[in-house]
Structure formats: structure tokens, C-alpha cells
Hints:
The protein is an alpha/beta fold and 288 residues long. It has a domain at 82-274. It contains seven helices and 14 strands. The chain has helices spanning 14-26, 39-43, 58-65, 83-92, 147-154, 179-189, 253-259, and strands spanning 6-10, 31-35, 51-54, 73-77, 109-110, 116-119, 162-166, 168-171, 174-178, 197-202, 206-212, 219-221, 228-230, 272-274. A hairpin with a 3-residue loop joins strand 10 (197-202) and strand 11. Helix 3 crosses helix 4.
Amino acid sequence: MNTERMYHVMGGGRFGTKAVRRLLELDAGCRIRVVETDAAARAGLPDGARLTVIGDDAVAYCCRLLAEPGPADWIIPTVPVHLAAAVIRRLVGRAFLPWPGLPELPGVATGPDGTLYASLADFICPDDCPQPADHCHQTGLPREKTLITLLADGLFTPERPVFILPSRQLAPGVGGYPAADLLSLHRAAAEFPDRPVVIGTACLCHGAATLMGPAADARVVSGTGGEEHAADDGEPAATGGDNFSSGGKPVSGQEADAEDDAPAPAGSGEIAGRGETSGNRSGCGGAA
């Protein structure tokens, strides 16, 4: 594995502790920061020179991390909230909205805050699933489409762009994404400050999607020194070279899944999405 990675584990409870133990075991050169406000949960974490525990709010911490994410920074979300959407809400004031109805997605349900959850599995997956690329580890059945693709295509409407952040498996049962990719998602959504958007996070089989209202504070983090720039000043928000813009070549999550067999490098900005008002796909998607 990449020996230069810094894993930012958001939450130090049961799943956060499991992630820490597995990452320490599999990635001998990594460093880990665990962000947890609960003192009892922090006390249950393993000790180690490569582990730092921070008593902070996960959403606030991620917002600061996005000011200048490095190529080694990976976010491991284990808090009981859709972290990517919560970060977008904190940065630009987009409100969580109720879904007008449950879309036709597998295993769909909604949480208390309105976030939609979907799953290709109708059973409890083993917590050490290796997530094979083309089939279900538990049943052996082929996976015709990833949930990344299903969310990107199934939640799109001409009035509502969709942005899905792929979660990549870093250890059995442990998923996360580069901090730079979360910044790319923020910038992409900022190109539509006056419209509702769907912010999602998904691996190959499971995912969450939050319907969010227009931005109350249409700013976008620059990624250099924590500066922010207006996203509604007549020009599209800067995308920093990411292959995701309303004027870029439309690529669906399904097409990108077929084209990209290997995980994308950190900071690639590969986000599955549909953002064209014409209904065409916009963006680039990769396998989680």
C-alpha cells in the first residue's frame, strides 16, 4: 500500500476503531488521525506512535482539511451522518431537503435527516468483505451495475444535478476517499449555487444520497491556503483541473466504471454525476 498515506478517521466508535486496527495492520507506513468528541470512545482506541486522537467535531475538522488537502490525505467516514453532505452544508449553507418520493433504487430507505440510503444487498454483509470488482462476495452473483452508477443515473432530473463521491476500499470492510476528491465534489456542486443538488457517497454496493437546497453562501474553498471565492460571480467555480464541469465531456458513471478498472489516484477528482440541464451526463465516475 501507499506508505505515505495519512488517514483521517472520522469517529472513534465501533466502526472507527475497527478501521484503525485494520489500517494499522495492513499499511505499515501510514499515519492515522482519529477525530472523536466522546472521551469514552477515545479511551477505547488502540495506542501507537502512528496514531493521533483529536477531540474535535468531524464536520468542522473536514472543512478545515479541505482548505489545503494533500495527496496523502484520505477521509474514512464512520460517524452516523452523511459526512460529505454535512460538510457541504457547513461550507455553503445548503439545507437538507426531504425527498419528494422514494426513487426506484435497490434496498432504498431514508434516515431521520432525510438522507437516502440504498444497497444492492438484502442481507447483512460481512464486515470484512473484500468487495470484488464484478460480483458479490457473499452470493457469488455478478454485479451488473455498481451502486455509484445507479445513484448517478437514478437520482438525476434536469432541475437537480447529481454528484456521487466514490468510496474506495482501503482494507476489508473499510472504505474512504481522498480529501481532494471531496474538495472536487464541493467545487463541482458550487457551479450550481441557485439550484438543488444531490450529494452522494457510494462504494460498489452501498451508498447514501442527500437532497440539498440552493446555497445560502455561494462560496467555494480554493484549496490553497483556505481562501474562498464566490461561485456566483458570473463565472463557473474553479475546478482546479478536475475532469468535472458543466461544459466538459459528458461521461456517465457506467461508462467510467467500464473504463477505469483500477482505483483512481488521490486527488483525481473522479466523481460520478449528471449535471447538464439538457439531461446529458456530466463528470467522470470511477469504481469505488
